[in-house]
Amino acid sequence: MRLSSVAIRFGAFGIAAGVAVLAGKAAVKTLEYKSQMAVQEALIDADMSWSRVIADGLQIVLEGEAPNEVVRLRSVTVAGQAVDPSRVINNISVADQVGIDTPDFALEILRNDSGVFLIGLVPAETDRENFTKRMTDLADGVPVSDLMEFADYPMPDNWRPAINFGLRALEMLPRSKISVAAGEVTVIASTDSADEKRRVEQRLTTIAPDNVDVTMEIAAPRPVVSPYITRFTIDENGPAFEACTADTEEAREKILAAARTAGVTDDVTCALALGVPSRTWGDAVALSIDAIAELGGGTITVSDADISLVGRIGTTQARFDQVVGELDNALPELFALDATLPEAPTETEEGPPQFSATLSPEGLVQLRGRIPNDLTNTVVENYASARFPGTDIAMGTRVGDGLPADWQVRALAAVEALSRLSNGSVIVEPSNLIISGITNDEEAQAEISSLLVEKLGADAEFSVDVEFVALPDPISNEPTPQECLDQITLVTGDRKITFDPGKSTLSSDSIPVIDDIAEVMRECVDIELEIAGYTDSQGREEMNQNLSQQRAEAVLSALRNRRIPTSSFVAVGYGEENPIADNSTEEGREANRRIEFNLVANEIADDTETTDEANAESDDAAPAE
């Protein structure tokens, strides 16, 4: 039977279709195999032999267990380099992370006039919102850039106290970098003056937690000194500086090395200051100290470019001339030497004339001794009244003849020198001026020496024996947090912090209350305080909570506007929670509308929680719906 042409055609098409299907499957298998092998080889070359590659058509499925997340992501990248990345399906799991150490948490806080910057890795349990709010309050209007990253690992020991201390340091230092790690804080900052530097260092040392290692690098601008002075003496009490100034660390070391060679054993230093007359200052001072040591005693005063050398009484003229000549030839250019070898004083029956000024520990000022005339007597008394305002000056002076021409200048200089002391005395003689006493200023001795050189000249004979006694640490006398709360309760009494009805605006009657609370807070350092707002039960619960929050924040803002540091304060609105009276009566609702001040443990920066509370007063306006 002959096949029809139609059947032949259908048969041919069928055979062709079958061949095409088989060829397509073969092509797919070939493509899958090549893709699979290309990816597998790439992964093996990348030391990822743990992976399995499955080809499913054009898709490449990656399976297996990567040792960590980084390797898992890396495997996808490697596969995407062997084939089109859009074809890669990532089904790789990550092995359980057992026994992995906690990362090194660290935070750097940069603060300057342009803003506050937070950079670092911190524990995930840190309350980011509250932390950022504290930083915003501290920034006082400048932007806060939060670049912190969080890791969900246990918070290390001593992390919280370190953060707490770092924030306190940041509050004191507007130009600073605070680096915080667990149990470690590094403070790098600059201050406006040496006095501020000492004050900040003292305060930070006082409030530093025992379980936090603190490193401080606080700089202060160098003062400008005029006259630029160093004064060194060797007498029966041994060698000592009465004033010491240097322009560089190198010059200071030269001067101190010469002093140690001369016999100084105490821990002394030289103030670094601006205003040096020559870059060879250190050489000139060191050579001058060497000369005094070679003479065996005397005084050397270097004031700007003038050097005054006063030898020791009893030194032979030949020895004196030799040492002075060697010094004069060795001094750098610009410096001029004036050397004097004093003669032994002539003994008289009455002794040399004297003028004395004394300041008692109780503040009594007494002036006694010889004065050349009535006009000088009046000038000295008026000058003493100006230097010691509010103090009665006890005058015991006597007008007499035969005094040196510069006696008035010496008497006035004595009064001014005395004003630099807490208590002490100054004795003026024709050839000498003796200052002794106690001061609370660490730089007083150098300042007095500089003053006398300026007033009397570089060749003037004087001695300054001043003892530095630090003032009691003001931090140690500050009230405790509980005492602060007790004081708030005491000053507010029965008065209340009130608001406009249904609003968070402080009423005019509340201003004196806020002022009194602010005065209390000025004496309290680093107290961590919760300002809690409460309402009565009238109105919707959510609206009551929002209103109480706004009112608590209004009190916080009012304290901040009065220059009270509030970085450790937190405002919380509790709405109608914790009523202290019956809300069914007007009197009860009035009592429940209140502001409370409570000691708290900040979630970010404190380890322990205090539950002491002191109720300060609240508003008299019911919340409105």
UniProtKB/TrEMBL annotation:
Keywords: Cell outer membrane, Membrane
Cellular localization per UniProt: Cell outer membrane
Classification via InterPro entries: Bact_OuterMem_StrucFunc (IPR050330), OMP_bac (IPR006664), OmpA-like (IPR006665), OmpA-like_sf (IPR036737)
Name this protein carries in UniProt: OmpA-like domain-containing protein
Residue span, OmpA-like domain: 486-603
Organism: Marivivens niveibacter
UniProt region (Disordered), positions on chain: 601-625
Pfam families: OmpA
